[in-house]
Amino acid sequence: MAAPSQTQKATYDVIVIGAGIQGSFTAYHLAKCHRNTLLLEQFLLPHSRGSSHGQSRIIRSAYPQEYYSRMMPDSFRLWQQLEAETGTTLYRQTGLVMLGPAGDPGLEAYRRSLGDGQILDAAALAQRFPGFRLQAGEVAVLDSTAGVLFADRALRAVQEVFRRHGGTLRDGEKVLRIEPGATVTVTTTAGVYRAPRLIITAGAWTGAFVEPLGLRLPLQPLRIDVCYWREKQPGSAGMGSVSPCFLTLGLSQAPHGIYGLPSLEYPGLMKVCHHHGSPTDPEKRDQVLSGVPRPDIALLSSFISSYLPGLEPQPAVMETCLYTNTPDEDFILDRHPKFCNIVIGAGFSGHGFKLAPVVGKLLCELSLGEEPSHNMAPFAITRFPGVLGAAQ
Ligand SMILES: Cc1cc2nc3c(=O)[nH]c(=O)nc-3n(C[C@H](O)[C@H](O)[C@H](O)COP(=O)(O)OP(=O)(O)OC[C@H]3O[C@@H](n4cnc5c(N)ncnc54)[C@H](O)[C@@H]3O)c2cc1C
């Protein structure tokens, strides 16, 4: 980090704002394409105030939308490449079970994405994964490719390779102003930088960031309660660190879904969260909310009593994280409609980590004017009406 008194001035091929997993993978691909790249982060790294911190994220092949499931082989391959480049293990295969009513259209869509995803009835599930209890009329679909990504370690690894390829990462340096033009000027708390290309991957801060650039993106930051649950009997079969990941579909009591994974953060605990949260401002998400009801916790406690009876029904540890949701929960990966040398990657809606290697590649391709390797239509900014309302 530069001393605040020093004013840095420099010119780069590309500037990337935000060193979460998306900005870091974008910068990684750019540096590997021999572009002189500056990656700017407002907080000192590592930090836990965005969306990419923690030890664990689910990765799976199953996706109901074909445009994501087609990216997954590419994503698995790129994660393996990063493991090879850094000599670190970034993934543990655990399998994932999707739980829901038999015949639920959402569950069927996930199953179809696996080709012939194996269906387990209550007895087969209990035999294979003894920690889980299905309710009457419910089944599980198994994605055996799925597992847990070691999130913090992955972020460190991708930033390390970025630097190894000549990239510059400046943390503790907040971007204050962006001046568009053929050369974009970026002013931070410590310097002024110029580049012909800019990429904004600022997570929950992106909405406020792009408003002065004439864009009103429908991005909603959500405060997510991240809960860890203790086994009633430590080391009991099928729970804690030996459990598969899971997610629910079509449960009337949890329409947004509940998901869980073996906790790498707290060995022996299981991480089980509601795939939804309350609207927040990223600057205020860690405010103490004394006396405020926590409906997510009540929902999770009730779910755990029924579906994971080997866990204590009260969370042992609670933390917070941020989702940044779009109305359709699809990502935004596009050029600014007016300033084509500014590319935006945002709105990862709580499912972007596993796809970050591909997202980074696509943002790199968009920025360099190359043909994107995947269909970009679902991620266009202009799918939302009125985004250019504030155009300069
Ligand atoms: C609890 C939880 C569980 C999740 N589980 C999964 C999962 O199992 N599988 C999965 O695939 N995904 C999961 N996700 C989603 C995934 O983690 C996110 O989609 C992803 O981390 C988003 O990364 P990002 O880089 O867009 O955002 P961030 O990590 O928030 O990065 C944005 C960065 O921009 C920086 N920034 C903002 N403003 C400025 C500024 N002015 N100047 C400089 N820097 C700035 C921020 O400080 C931040 O570091 C989960 C998310 C949460 C919260």
From TrEMBL:
<keyword id="KW-0274">FAD</keyword>
<dbReference type="GO" id="GO:0050031">
    <property type="term" value="F:L-pipecolate oxidase activity"/>
</dbReference>
<dbReference type="GO" id="GO:0050660">
    <property type="term" value="F:flavin adenine dinucleotide binding"/>
</dbReference>
<dbReference type="Pfam" id="PF01266">
    <property type="entry name" value="DAO"/>
</dbReference>
<feature type="domain" description="FAD dependent oxidoreductase">
    <location>
        <begin position="13"/>
        <end position="366"/>
    </location>
</feature>
<dbReference type="InterPro" id="IPR006076">
    <property type="entry name" value="FAD-dep_OxRdtase"/>
</dbReference>
<dbReference type="InterPro" id="IPR036188">
    <property type="entry name" value="FAD/NAD-bd_sf"/>
</dbReference>
<dbReference type="GO" id="GO:0033514">
    <property type="term" value="P:L-lysine catabolic process to acetyl-CoA via L-pipecolate"/>
</dbReference>
<dbReference type="GO" id="GO:0005777">
    <property type="term" value="C:peroxisome"/>
</dbReference>
<comment type="function">
    <text>Metabolizes sarcosine, L-pipecolic acid and L-proline.</text>
</comment>
<comment type="similarity">
    <text>Belongs to the MSOX/MTOX family.</text>
</comment>
<keyword id="KW-0560">Oxidoreductase</keyword>
<dbReference type="InterPro" id="IPR045170">
    <property type="entry name" value="MTOX"/>
</dbReference>
<dbReference type="GO" id="GO:0008115">
    <property type="term" value="F:sarcosine oxidase activity"/>
</dbReference>
<keyword id="KW-0285">Flavoprotein</keyword>
<protein>
    <recommendedName>
        <fullName>Peroxisomal sarcosine oxidase</fullName>
        <ecNumber>1.5.3.1</ecNumber>
        <ecNumber>1.5.3.7</ecNumber>
    </recommendedName>
</protein>
